């Protein structure tokens, strides 16, 4: 039995909804609620609309929201010339629900849609978009979209009817396109605090600076100086204004977040040690900030040290194209000491000034849009995600979808660990109540109901799995292509364990950058927490290396187990150091590339002929009396004969002697040399000895601080 809701707002004063159902015999039954209103229009088996003078016959009711196709469909019986009516949509009969909607599992729509395969295409979706918009952006036919919506239990009659952003995402996932959720800019924008990331070269004091700043944070003040690392903290000025600091220093985390579309950082603090100056990762940080179009405030650190030379740092930064304030530019520079806590107030002032100039504002009304900066599992409280609200207000109790996970916010805690009812823009907040552990950079989306949350989460998981399989497929094709070029590629299985989800992501991404045609970095398992016995078992099963980043040293039972099983555990706190060690191991493990190398060069001084005295002793042999002038000659090498620079013969060495003694290798000096099947020596010729060597790849650390393995 099918129900139709027909809107005829122009027919009567006020909005009139005419509902009727069609039974199997085709008889229409109008709902009793509308019967009174209908009596004005229904005459026996005919229906007339009066207000706009249009006559509706045989239940042909004009839909005033409809586009040309719907109009053509409705006018079909009026023989409209030139408008082609589309085929009637196939309706999917829906069984009445027997369960509460929240319990109903999300069943993927059965509709098979074929649109041009473009897995990297990103379609922008927004609340209130029409089917027409979605069709135009995704390339899928409207009928196909309608059919998916019908499978999802939603009926959209007209291509110009609007749908919610969540529905648009569900439909987009079904047709296999990637989406970017565009959030409304509507609503009153209010000033908001700046979100700051600390970057710079290793050991220049990023962690120390964050530690010192954290001690001045609101959380530390409220908790008597005791703070816990939850991924972000807030520093408040006397004026009441505040700054939010992301508590994960380094570039990998910044890039990983950005790569996932989470552009939360407003300002970058570039830490440069006054005693060390500009280093590769300083330049890398500058490039990251420039690419992301994020302004920089320079903090020249370690100014307490005797060897500190802030002026030199200024000149170096200036020559790298950073327009410093004291050189007429607009990049502020502050001299600090993170260790002695000197100049921190000046740094905070500079950040406020920068934020002021940027006039940062965000909408505070309406549903929140937020990004996860860190996630961890707490034994008692389950998965916890620290998120920063970008716009709107996140309210406790709301249903949310975070990446591919979902949940209902059981509690929101601020950085001081205090339970709060809501979170406003730029406010870091710890969310409790998720069903699974999200990743740093995941978006937080507020949805209307548990059913919608479940559907979106399952749809996203399905899409992720599809993308993962596609990636494996692509990697295999790529590997097959590489295998054609290089004979051998060894695998380097790695297990990554880190303190928080954000670090897991950053370390995994960084390790993957060491992939090369000779060694395939295969991350077999990742996890949050210290190295466990389970990791050792897994490593033993697949001969994997274990990487522990920012985790505590494993107990001796585990290290002993690892040593016995010949498993290497690499513990690091700095990604760059980890990459250096891993790079060395990769180079060792790489089979190398076979290369021909000239190992020595000799000059022909005399030619001797050894006559074959009988047939059984073989033919006459020519011996070249040579002097090795460079490198060495080996008996196993290939000899190349050159005359006036041209190659005249190439063949294996048949004999190599010095003072009538056979030799395997000879360095500089005189020798007698026979080349197989060669009797064309001339005095003055050059002979080169060619040897096959295996060239190992190189671990390259570029000026910008990026690393790679070069084969
Ligand atoms: P990161 O790798 O950039 O996070 O650097 P860290 O914060 O771990 O600091 C590296 C080393 O520099 C540590 O031994 C710190 O104690 C030291 N350090 C950091 N800031 C200062 C400072 O302002 N003055 C001095 N003298 N040492 C510092």
From TrEMBL:
Which keywords appear in this protein's UniProt record, sorted alphabetically? GTP-binding, Initiation factor, Mitochondrion, Nucleotide-binding, Protein biosynthesis, Transit peptide
User: Which top-level group of life is the source organism from?
Assistant: Eukaryota
GO CC term, one of those recorded: mitochondrion
- Report domain Tr-type G positions: 191-361
Under Pfam families, the record lists: EF-G_D2 (PF22042), GTP_EFTU (PF00009), IF-2 (PF11987)
Is the keyword Plastid assigned to this protein?
no
Example GO molecular function term?
translation initiation factor activity
The record's section on InterPro entries has: EF-G-like_DII (IPR053905), IF2_II (IPR044145), P-loop_NTPase (IPR027417), Small_GTP-bd (IPR005225), T_Tr_GTP-bd_dom (IPR000795), TF_IF2_bacterial-like (IPR000178), TIF_IF2 (IPR015760), TIF_IF2_dom3 (IPR023115)
As for subcellular location, the record says: Mitochondrion
Q: Which SUPFAM superfamilies match?
A: Initiation factor IF2/eIF5b, domain 3, P-loop containing nucleoside triphosphate hydrolases, Translation proteins
NCBIfam families listed in its UniProt record: IF-2, small_GTP
The protein's name: Translation initiation factor IF-2, mitochondrial
The species this protein was found in: Lolium multiflorum (Italian ryegrass)
